Here is the input.
Amino acid sequence: MTKKQKLELTWVGKEKRPRLEPRILLEEPELSHHADHRGEREVFDNRLIQGDNLLALKALEAEFAGQVKCVFIDPPYNTGSAFAHYDDGMEHSLWLSMMRDRLELIRRLLSPDGSLWVTLDDNEAHYFKVMADEVFGRDCFVTNVVWEKSDSPRNSARQFSTDHDHVLVYAKGPEWVPRRLARTEEANAIYANPDDDPRGPWLPGDPYANKPYSKGLYKMVGPTGRTFSPPPGRYWRVSEERLRELDQDGRVWWGPNRSARPSIKRYLNEVGDLVPRTLWSKNDVGSNRTSKNELRALFPGDVSFDTPKPEALLKRVLDLATNPGDLVLDSFAGSGTTGAVAHKMGRRWIMVELGEHAQTHIVPRLCKVVDGTDPGGVTEVAQWKGGGGFRFFRLAPSLLERDKWGREVISKCYNAAMLAEALCKIEGFTYAPAETEYWMQGRSTERDFLYVTTQTLTHEQLRDLSEEVGPDRTLLVLCAAYRGDARGLPNLTVRKIPDHVRDRCEWGRDDYSLAVAALPEAEPKGQDAPAQATLFAEPTK
Here is the structure.
């Protein structure tokens, strides 16, 4: 492989990409919920969306592109076992295609300082990383956190009892850095004060460094006359002059008998918050057993979810990736843990879930959070008392449907307002109907507008509309039909619907879980193509 080549992962159907319809969202107020009183800094416009998450991500793109601070997803692990709420046994190619399509949209939704956190196990984590490196760029991979998910061995395991999952972290840009963690009693406990230093507890620091330092080669005479030099290949961390200054200030520890190798004191009151580490213990962020107990407390007797995530794990992620008020997204909502924790921590949130448990589990759980009747999880540590609210949405049906003659026509489910909003989204306009001008239904700039009507417009009507718009504004008119020649009206662009949008998207498709039979065969690559790691092919010798 030459220096100009890059390693890529390929799979059957990789080049096949869906042409997604940007659906509108329809609120169901009877499933939305909010507190009785509005408190300071409480958020009421959080969103729970039921529907295919690929279509939902596309639906969110126009409004939220570049605004999401943190995405946490717990996708199907592809273990070959059927979970209660989705098929977790997808063939590898399907799984990779499913995740690639969603990652591309997630990346567009992330803010410039945003980050993505993905929990996986060994079945797909390593394939996922190579694929995600292509989507985000390898320099945007941050780390692989190892989460201790199990609190006891599984003796029935054939080879190893798996104790951990991966949490793969990607950033929108390579300059991203996580927030630091608040100091804990355990972290502070290693500091002591054996010499009653008035500056308080301290920790002895290694005075030597591996990095060559021009002033780091000297001999230091201790209080008892003993001479100290750096070990072979190492150097003093500071110059001789600086080390003597520190000693005069009482910041050097020579041991209880003042004859030991010197250590430079690091005082507890001078250290900052903790840099996050990549090994997360069950004692710090909970285990699978923790999360199951949390759900049992919320839904006694219910065992619907096999691998929920503990609230403490989500709190750790949001502590590192967000500040209060930031927007958090989870497009594989599952039992709703991400939204519950984000709400308790004062973050805004959006969740997407396809299954019926969006209503049967997530809605009741979030209602308890809003009402302050969920005492478990991170409620106490977050000092959560209730408040705020959320809105429940469904994806609208496809804009076009087939009539009895097989022609694609506008769906009968769409009223005038829904049609205008849907066409605004497809055309890249913001749906914002004006109170005074009937034709100002959407806008892309301060002078560029969109108007939708199912009527057939006459040339006289178009001429009158052109005069109302005026010479300094432009209007895209989408109508069922029109008469006359609109080319003489330079401020109007007139198009027929549905003809104008018929070839834009895949209409009438509500499920993007894919099927093996629908995937094309992979085409052979030429000698000049990038080097590739190919699934289901023998490696080149």
In short: The longest helix spans residues 92-109. The chain has three domains: 26-182+275-390, 185-270, 400-496.
